[in-house]
Amino acid sequence: MWQTVVCCLLNYSPMGSKHLFDTTTSYILCRRCGADLADTKHIINHLSPEANIAINQTIFEQKDVAVQVFSNSLGIKFYSISFSNTKCTAINNWQQNFTWYPGYAWKPCICKQCGVHHGWVFEPIESIDFNPNQPSKKGFFVLKLAFLLNKKFADSLIVVPKSYMN
Fold first, then answer.
1. Averaged pLDDT score across all residues of the chain
2. Distance CA 33, CA 10 (A)
3. Does 2 score more than 60 pLDDT?
4. What 3-state DSSP class applies to 117?
5. Which domains does the chain have, with CATH numbers?
6. Which residue among 2, 40, 120, 145 is buried most deeply as judged by most CB within 10 Å?
7. What does the pLDDT read at residue 135?
8. The CULT domain covers which part of the protein (predicted)?
């Protein structure tokens, strides 16, 4: 019984916003269904000459993250960040037209759980035949910020039951 009480006391913070056992990594979730999409340690700054704007921001508790704004062929703008690895699923065939990264082919990528379109997978054109579904070490992901949610932020929205407050 005392182990349960001690365990609860160690994991409960009356301040609500500060965790006693803070880890150095944070996860990024699908904003629609809450599925794990990426680890913040996989955020990279892969700049594109085709970006409308590129701004360094502190985002997902990471400093100097390059947030790039891209426009597609329909004129729709996307605020995006790049990752070396995600759990996003690549779909369809590699496309070489309308690429934001010259020398790279791309595919859309979706959430494995709910199917929402999160962004794109980019792969150097010379290696697209070798990696049909996942990028090689030279490949990367570009995900739209509008569909991402920081797990720590999501956890902060959870209300502590009144019985814990006594």
1. 82
2. 29
3. no
4. strand
5. 23-165 (2.170.150.20)
6. 120
7. 81
8. 25-152
Q: Based on the number of CB atoms within 10 Å of its own CB, is 104 exposed (0-12), middle (13-18) or buried (19 or more)? A: buried
How far is CA 146 from each of CA 19, 77, 94, 154, rounded to the nearest angstrom?
26, 11, 24, 15
Distances (CA, A) of 26 to 31, 39, 84, 88, 121: 15, 6, 15, 17, 22
**CA gap 142, 99 in Å, rounded:** 12
The residue whose two tokens read 């790279």 is 104
Q: 17-62: per-residue pLDDT in tens?
A: 333 333 457 899 999 999 999 999 999 999 999 999 999 999 988 8
* Separation CA 154–CA 74 (nearest Å): 32
Residue with tokens 């932020």: 153
As given in the structure block, the two tokens for residue 16 are 């609500």
Single out the residue of 92, 112, 104, 109 nearest to residue 144, CA to CA.
109
Closest CA to 112 of 95, 136, 90, 130: 90
3-state secondary structure at position 145? helix
